[in-house]
Every structure is written in structure tokens, then in C-alpha cells.
Amino acid sequence: MSLPTRADCAARDAADPLAGMRARFELPEGSIYLDGNSLGALPKSAAARLERVLHAEWGRDLIQSWNTAGWIDLAQRIGDKIAPLVGVGPGELIVADSTSANLYKVLSAGVHIAQEVGRARGAIVSERLNFPTDLYIADSVAKAHGLALDLVERDAIASRLERGDVSVLMLTHVDYRTGQVHDMARTTRAAHAAGALMVWDLAHSAGALPVHLRGDGSREEAADFAVGCGYKYLNGGPGAPAFVWAHPRHTARMDEEGWRQPLSGWLGHVAPFAFTPHYLPARGIQRFVCGTPPILAMAALECGVDVFAEAQAHGGLDAIRAKSIALGDLFIALVEARCAGHGLTVASPRDGRERGSQASLRHADGGYAVVQALIARGVIGDFRAPDILRFGFTPLYTRFVDVWDAVEQLRDVMASGEWRADRFHRRQAVT
Ligand SMILES: Cc1ncc(COP(=O)(O)O)c(C=O)c1O
């Protein structure tokens, strides 16, 4: 296959069914944003919405807005909009807190259920290279319950399950460093066959690719719990609230038992405005709410999530996935052809079906500096220690020409040795 030219990329953009969605985002002139996997771009609708929330709902209507502007229902309303993006039904998923906090709640639920079925001393198992917050939170939950946290390599997960003592398998669906995707259905089936519960972190999945938490609908293939992030592909803004999902078979049982999650705040109570001294959990997924939701942040998140409803008319998540794979394939092909001989290697799967919406490169000693040199040229990616240069593709606003231009900038940075300058090696707090 001959290498595409910039004109070929422009032609692909002209034929792209999602091309019009880019106009829904505010994107800075003169830069190429390839970090929507870390912080999604600003939906243009958010400015007017926040203006309204600030001045009409907060400024003018003040406390009444909990009722009159529907603030009290916002977490469930947005949850119902995220639900189809991850393959679950209305009322099953809710927006609350951070991904980390939600993980604490669902891992605790998983351990509780495992204890009920007689696996009181089973381990929580995860991947050694999972995102650190997942490992830290799992460690806390394991310690709180006197369990082991067992971290294994990706290719040892199946054999670890076969030992038969796993309570909960907790994995991130799309690896944050390499973008490698777990086969959700197959892994969930393997966990269940081994008597373990399956918890998925969808931080790099929700809004990036179709997710089917309910699998084929069978007990074997439907996951047990999931958490995910609002500020990445859902474009909810910096620090946007996260989401949490529990399979209805679990929430139904929790309803019967009156099981309470460990962060039992008043808005997860069955009747918060009864102000009773004793905690009685709300029914269903509402029990996973802790305290008062951040309404400004919720309003921004809803704007980000609403863009997906609009994208539905242009092919929705299937079109997003197809374009995401095409953008990633293009990036990898161009990097290999145009940047050869400069010590960069591809860290992501070459098969687009096994890759999330990012492509990562490795560089033995210059990864951080190369990313900084690119940022100075207006190409925004990020760096993940120890050696990963990460480039995210957000099909709602990333164009094929952006990929082409970004790789040309990378080629210049490498060929000129520009990245070797001292200023690009000074580490900032956020990489
Ligand atoms: C896999 C994964 N989980 C969780 C998080 C973040 O969790 P929180 O929003 O609680 O900081 C990230 C952030 O990048 C992530 O990549």
C-alpha cells in the first residue's frame, strides 16, 4: 500500500460522516490536539449552559433550582445518556464522584458478594500495569477486608483465575499506556467460569468505542460492575464527575438485603430529606451516590455527553470506532515510514481492533522531551513514564490531516534533534 499524501487525508476528511461534529467543539487555532484521551475538548454548548446555570439557576433561583432546574435528578439523567454508550439500560448507571471513589464502592460490593457465595478469603486480582489509582484503591479494599491483592501480567490472568480462589477480577478495558484492549466478553466469561466477579474500569473506553457491559445478555458474559471517567472521551471538562454501573441482578439483591456501600452518604439514602439518624440505602444504582453532586461540573458533563446523541445521526459509536481505527492505522503507518531511524517504536497493537483510540510510541531516553518539543510546535500529546509517548484520537474532532501534520512535526523534531534541548527535559508536575 502506498503511503497516503496530505491530499489523500484531506479527501478522507471531506468524505467523513463525522466531519461536521468538529464544529461542536472549541479547539485552539494553530494546534493539533491529540490528548482527548486525557482531557476531552470543550463542547461549544457548555459556555451557554454554564452561563445559564450560573446566572439563572444559581444566581437568580438559588436553592429552588434543586427542584425547578432538576439539579437533584441530574446524576441519573446524565447516567441514562451514558448508559447506551456502554451497553446498559436506563436506571442502571449513575454519575457520581471520581472514578477512584467509585472503584472503592464497587470493589467493596464485589468482595461482599463473593463472601456471600463462600469465597470469603479469595483474592482481588488485577494487572500489574493497570493504572495506579486502580491498584491503590484495590489495595485499600483488600486491606479493609483482610484479602490479598494479587497483581499479574496480562498473559497470566487466565491461569491465575484457574487457581479458583479469585473473588474479584478488576481490569481496565483499554490500557492507558499502550491502548491495548481486553476482550471484554471473553475475559468476563473466564472470570465467571472461575467463580469470580468482573469489574471493568472504562476510563479509556466510554465514548471511544462501543462497549457491551451486558455482553450477549447471558449471566456468563454480563459484567458485574463498571466505573468510568467523564473528562476523557466524554468531554465533560477537567475533573468531571465519573460514573458507576452495577448489574441489575446485583442491585436487586442489594435491595433485598439492604446492603450499603461503604461511602454511605446522605444522597445514597432512601429518603435523604427525611433526615433520619439511621442509614437506609436507596434502591438500585442510587445507593452508589455519596454526597451532593457538583452541579457546575455536572452541567458541563451533560453538554459533552449530549454531543454523542447528536453524533448518532452520523453513525454514532460505530462510525466513531471505524474512524478511530483508521486514524490510528494512519498514524502508525506514517510514523513508521516518515520517522524511521530515530529510535521510536510502536507500543500499541497494530491491529486496530485490539487498540483503543490512541497510538503510543516508545523512545528509550527522549520520550518526555520529544513530547515537550512537539507541544512547543502545537502538537499536543502526553507522556507516561517510563517511556511512552501517547497520542489520542478523538474522531468527533480529530481529522485525518491532523494526523498527517502531527507526524510531519514529529519527523522534524526527531530529524533536527530539537528534542535534545535542555528546556524540553525539565519535568513539569503533569506530564
Ligand atoms: C484507567 C484509569 N482509571 C482511573 C483514572 C482516573 O481516576 P480519577 O478520575 O479518580 O482521578 C484514570 C486517569 O487517567 C485512568 O487512566
Number of helices: 13
The fold-level CATH name of the largest domain is Aspartate Aminotransferase, domain 2
CATH architecture of the largest domain: 3-Layer(aba) Sandwich
Widest β-sheet, arrangement of strands: 4-10-9-8-7-5-6
The run of helices and strands is HEEEHHHEHEHEHEHEEEHHHEEHEEEH
Please state roughly what percent of the residues sit in beta strands, choosing from under 5%, 5-15%, 15-25%, 25-35%, 35-45% or over 45%.
5-15%
Give the N-to-C terminal Cα separation: 36 Å
The H-level CATH homologous superfamily of the largest domain, spelled out, is: Type I PLP-dependent aspartate aminotransferase-like (Major domain)
Largest sheet: 7 strands, mixed
What does this structure look like?
The protein has 431 residues and is α/β, with parallel strands linked by helices. It has two domains: 6-44 and 315-425, Aspartate Aminotransferase, domain 1 (Alpha-Beta Complex); 70-306, Aspartate Aminotransferase, domain 2. Helix content is 38%, strand content 14%. It has a seven-stranded mixed beta sheet, sandwiched between helices. It has a four-stranded antiparallel beta sheet with strand order 11-12-15-14, covered by helices on one side. 48% of the residues are buried. Bound molecules: pyridoxal-5'-phosphate (PLP). Residues 98-100, 131, 133-134, 172, 176, 201, 203-204, 229, 242 line the site of pyridoxal-5'-phosphate.
